[in-house]
Structures are given as structure tokens and as C-alpha cells.
Amino acid sequence: MTAVPQVPPAGRPDPSARRRPTSVARRRSSGRLWRAPGPTPTGVARLLPRTVAARVRTLTAVAAVLLVALLAIAWWAIANAREGVRVIGQDAGPQVVATGDLYFQLTDMDAQLANALLIGGAAGGGRDQALARYDENRQKASAALLKAAKLADERTEDNTARDVLDALGRYERLAGQALLLDQQSDHASGPPSQRVIDLYRQATDLMKLDLLPKAYNLTLDNGTLVRHTYEDKRSAVLTGRTWILVTGVALLAVLTGLQVFLARRFRRLLNVPLAAATLGTLLLVVAGAAMLSGQASHLRKAKQEGFDSMLALSRTRTISNSAAADETRFLLDPGRADAYEQVYLSKSQTVLYLKAGNLDEYNAAVQKDLSFVPGRAPFLGFLGTEANRPTESDERRTQLVDALNKVLKDYQKVQANDRQMRNLVHSGKRAEAVAARGTSAADFTEYDRSLQVLAGIHQKAFDEAVKDGDDGTGGWYTVLPVAGAVIALLVLVGVRPRLAEYRWSK
Amino acid sequence: MNGRRVAAALLAVFVLAAGTACGIADADETSVATKDTLVIGVNADQPGVGERTESGSYEGFDIDIAREIAERLRVTDVTFTPVTSATREEMIQNGDVDLVVASYSVTPERKVKVSFAGPYYVAHQDILVRRSDTAIRSIHDLQDRRLCRVPGSVSFPRVHDEQGVAARPVVANGYSGCLTGLTAGAMDAVSTDDLILAGLASRHGRDLRIVNAPFTDEPYGVGIRKSDVNGCEAVNKAITRMYQDGTAARLLAKWFAPVGLKVTTTVPQFEGCV
């Protein structure tokens, strides 16, 4: 700031001069611009400068300090806003989508491995296709993991990402062994040999107990990171806005005070450069505060209307998907059927909670009317939270309600299929139940697609808010120093001739 | 100088506004994540899991887990308080305890009232019978038999309501009471989580038998006040680290290897705090 070095320290005049104020005052009282000082000031008042020049200089200095403070606070608040938008918009947001997908890629790898082993080496059996899909999933999973590791900002999270990578390596080794052994035994289609099955069981246990839980926990870690960033940065932006208003108003007061002081002492109507500086400050403060309000609002929208739902729906998809896997296991492993049924109920209630003592009751409850008024959904769970999430835009609310109604309709179908399947099993028609899996798998895919459509609406809101946030601070790193220099220059231009006038009058 | 007075008034308004803005930011002063002392609710009557010894101290798998979590939260002073299945939610809601580590299964019903960090372990419900009783081989053999029911515990409803097996309830106040009833012949079976059964069986190894027909997943969560998201996330992190540095595996081996229970030593899938 050019103005600073020229301004004497506010402590002036020095104490020795104060002890003999009368002589100084008397000599100067003859001057046109000088008013005789009152009685010797005491207490705090003694710190105030008592000559015109010193007062003008002090006010200018205070204005300069406030201007620098204003610019520094604005810079800091903007930096926080940009960092918040960057972490939420460019890092963690896309990352949640990536780790959510990771879960599906891992699940599908396991399914394709089972397919490849079941199909065997018979020509045209589709083993190559299964293995190609396995490889494709593995590549995507590795890419998603690499992203997760990059984002990890804490040792615990970093270790989790590394553990997943490590477990994936072990899984692949088991899978490779199983495939090789199966090829060597040269079996056509149908169940592979016991040794191959044992290897596959080891692999699938590793997947179920080690890889998938950690992949899910990584998604949760991302949610934590975003929540902390959001709270820190939004609070910083709002605090920044408050302090911009505080320093801005103080600066305006000082500039106005200087204007009034000059008008009285120097008998001028209006100091034009000073008035321009005051106006410029007013504009800067108003524009800065408005911009920061906008940033806080963009951050809130990105987090609450976009990210929160994206994360919750990613978890909904994951839990639904693993519940569907438990349905299959219920069919294939009668020895643990009771446990798989209980877990299926628990996962279903996590997705959409209705009070029910057992799966029979739950299935029946889900088939009742699930229509809802946003904010007062008659069910809880992930979908209940989504139904109750507030949205500002009316247009989006309509879209969301429609998409969620579609999800609920598809979910009812999935649960109806489940009931049918279990009824068949309980009445001893296991083969029929297995045969019906094709249709119910198609219905599940449809339900999963509806969830993605719903998530897509939130993704759009998220992208818009992030873009608005990015655009909102664009250019401000240029605006701040330029505005600062202009205001400082105007103050200087306004004050200098008056000081000069005072020097001549001496 | 009137202008200055107006400016001063405006300044005062904004300073006040700044004060309120800061007040909103740190609303989580009482989060478990930042506390120096913790009151942790534990079971007092589950051998091997959570039990009060004659000297008045506590020991068991849950107790060690609770201590390790507290250490990782940098808590200096931990007090254990006994809770029962019937009182856990209320004690968390009232703030009588900060955390509950008491073989506390995460269920959708309970999640309506409290939050769960973890689970730190996924147990499985099984059945304990007298060794002489060979008729009970799965939960479906409990039809019309006398089964221990502990109020507030989900174990009996899991058999009776979820699986639809019409067992006859015999009420006991905690699983030690069930054990007494079983050995005295007042009931035919005790059904609850394998970790608890393993501890009970180790007391009367000769006379009792675990059926080994697990029929549920019981994710053991750490109960915490619903609004304390920061605390819940901090506990999750502590659990993750316990698995990463091998503490969890060591504790599982310490308490359950001697009774021959097969345990999982990888971190469970968390519930999520929001």
C-alpha cells in the first residue's frame, strides 16, 4: 500500500510537545485554519492527535490500515470459498461416485469369476466373455482405488485404500489359481471340481468379509471429508463476510469522518477524490459481501441438495445390491438360509424402514400405499430421508418426487418378487424359485436404474452449484488489488493537497 | 459528528452479528470426539464379553474394545457403568452414558432412537443347550421348548417373531440368569450371540453344548447420541485403526480362541454416522 509509509505513526504528537501545549497553540492560533485547543486533555483523550495535520494524517493512516485489513479478509474468505468448492466439487464429490462404483465392480468381478468357473471350457459357453468382463471390472476398480488413495488425507483412510489394494491382489491370486486349476482339469460346463470350489470359496469370502466392507467404509470416509470441509469452509466464508462488513463499515465511517473534518477545517464543500474513494469502498464492500453470501449458498446447495443425496443413494444402491446377493445365497445355501433371510430383512429396512417383526410382515407393509408428501414421508430409512430432503427449486422438487415415486414402485416390485421366491422355497418348490430368478433380476436392474436416475437429478444440482461457485469467485483475485490501489490512490489524491496547503500556511 | 455516531452504532451491530456467527459454528462442544472423560455403558453379567468382577472392576472383550476406543479418542479418564438391554437407549438419550459398548446389535428400530458407530464386530446368534439334550439341532427344534427371554434383548424376538418359531418364553434378568435357569433345568435353551454363549459355556464347559447353527448376523455397534456425528465418526476411525494395527485381532484371540470360536479379523462394514 503506497499510502502507508507516508503516514506518521498515530502516536504523534510526542509527549514532550504535549507538556507545553499552550505555547504551541498560541503561536498557531493566529493561523486561519487553526482553532485554539481546549483545556489540556486527560486520560485516553491524550492519545488523540491534536493538530490538524496530525489528525488528517492519523485518519488517513487508520483508513489505510482498514483498507489493507478489508482486502486481506476478503482475500482469505475467497481463498476459503475456492478451496471448499474445489474439495467438494472436484475431489470428494466425483470420488464418492467412484468408490460407489468400486463396490459394484468388485461384486461383479466375483459374479463373473463364479460364471467362468461354472461355465467351464466348453466351446461357445461364454467363459471368455465372463473373463473379459472380469478384467474390465478389475481395471475400473484399480482406477477407482487409485483415485481414493490420492484423495485420502489421513493415515487411516490411506491405509484402508492400501488394504483394499492388497486384498484385491490376494483375491486375484486365488482367482487365478482357481481358473488355472479348472482349466487343467479340463471340465466342460457344470460344477467344477471340489478343489476349485474350495479356492473359489476362499476368494469369495475374502471379497465378502474383507474387500467389500472396506470399499464401503472408503465411501463413508469421503462423506466425512466433505462434511468437515463444508462446515469449515462455509463457516470461514460467513465469518469472512461478517468481518468484511465490520471493517468495511469502519472504513466508510473513517472516510466519511475525514470528509466532514476536511470540509469543516478547510471550508470546502466536497472533497471529490475522497468521495469517490468512499463510494468505491461502499461498492467493494457490498459486492464482496454479496459474492460471499452467494458462495456460502453455492456451497450449501452443492452439499445439501447434491452431495448428501448422491452419497446416500450410492449407499442405497450398495446395500440393495448386497441384499440381492443375500437373496441368491438364501437360494443356494440352505444351511445358512435363516441367517440370509434375517440379513435381507435388516438391509431392506435400512433402505426403507417400516415397522415389521419379520420379513413376512415387512413384505406386506411395503405393498401398502407408499405415496408421500415431501417432508412427511410415512417411512424412514435411506429412501425416507430422501423423501424428506428439502429442495428450494419447485421444478426440481417435482422431478425428484416423480423419480422417487418410480424408485418406490420398483422397490415394491422387488419386494413382491422376494416374497414370491420365499413362498416357493417354503412350499418346497426350490427349482421353480431358482427359475424365476431371471425375471426378478430384470426387475432389480430396473430398480437400480431408477435409483441412478434419482441420483442423476442430484448430480445435476451438484454440478450447477459447483459451477456457480467456481464462476462466483472468478476474477476476484484481480478485482481486490486493483480496487485497493484505486481507493488508496483516491484517498491520497484527496488528502495531499490539503496537507500541502497546511504546510504552506505554516 | 452525528455521522460517526451512526457509524459506531452500525459497527456495534456487525460486531454482534460476528458473535452470533461464531456461536453457530461450534455447536458440538459436548461431542464425544472432544471430551476428556467418558462414561461408557457396558454389560455386567456376560462372562468373556462384559462382566463385573468381585473386586468391582470390569473385564471382557467389550471392556477391552471400549478401553481401546477411549485411548484412541485421547480420553484420559474412563468410567464404566452397567447397562441392561432394557435401559441402553434411554441412558444414551438422557446423557447418562456417552457411549454404550455392550454387545449392542445395530437394528433399524434402535437406529430411530440412537446412532451407532461401528460395528466393531459381527456376531451370530446361536443356541446353548444342556449337553444331555441332543434333540435341539437347529432353531426350528425350539418349537414349544422353554427358551430364555431377556427383556430389551433382540435375541428372543429373532427366534419367535422373525423366524416364527413358537418357543415358550421364560423371563430372566440378564444372561447369567439364563445360565442359572438352564443348568437348573428351569428352561431348555438359551439363544443369543455366539460371543456371549462362548463365555457362558466356558463357565460350565462339561454340562453345556453350543448347537453351532448360527441363524443371524448381529453387528455390534457402539451406541452414541443421535446428534453427535463428529463423535460417531471419531469412534469409527478408532475402530478402523484397531483393525489396522492388529489390536482387534489380538483381543478376539485373547477372549475367544481359548473356547474355540472361529472369529473374523477384518474390519466390518460400518453403518455410517449420517
Automatic annotation (TrEMBL), chain B:
InterPro entries: Bact_solute-bind_prot3, SBP_3_CS, Solute-binding_3/MltF_N
Any Pfam family: SBP_bac_3
Swiss-Prot/TrEMBL keywords: Signal, Transport
Swiss-Prot/TrEMBL GO biological process terms: amino acid transport
One cellular-component annotation, GO: outer membrane-bounded periplasmic space
Organism domain of life: Bacteria
Protein name, per record: Glutamate ABC transporter substrate-binding protein
CDD domains: PBP2_GluB
